[in-house]
Design brief:
This protein is of the alpha+beta class and 116 residues long. The protein has helices at 68-83, 90-93, 98-113; strands at residues 5-7, 20-23, 44-48, 63-66. The structure holds zinc ion (2 copies).
Length: 116
């Protein structure tokens, strides 16, 4: 597959400063936060678990492929983690999928630790 390209900086998740890398032909790299997709997500995005805008590295072990909806959700939940200093109530968490929760928590941990 071709290398991901950075497109539309500023047109990604509203809570993120990072430019969005779009990945096509996603049957090879399906969305990692939703077990099933209806409709199919034909165009996915690269999410940096420790967001670039928060000082995260652009390394393979910090990159995951997610659909646009999942990507927005993860950044929204990271913002909630930061606002609530990690104490996000279950009533809020349950509105997100397990995959979104795991990646948001991992991202928050990396942000607060300042390390992978
Ligand atoms: Zn992201
Ligand atoms: Zn998805």
């Amino acid at each position: 597959m071709s290398a991901p390209t950075i497109v539309n900086p500023g047109n990604g998740p509203t809570t993120s400063q990072e430019p969005v890398e779009v990945v096509h032909r996603t049957t090879a790299e399906p969305c990692s936060v939703h077990a099933a997709h209806k409709p199919t997500s034909h165009v996915n995005e690269i999410h940096h678990v420790w967001p670039l805008g928060q000082g995260g590295p652009n390394r393979a072990d910090n990159r995951v492929v997610v659909c646009g909806t999942g990507h927005n959700s993860i950044h929204q939940l990271i913002a909630e983690y930061l606002t609530m200093k990690g104490a996000v109530p279950y009533s809020l968490l349950k509105q997100y999928t397990m995959g979104e929760r795991q990646l948001a928590k991992l991202g928050y941990d990396r942000i607060t630790r300042g390390a992978m």
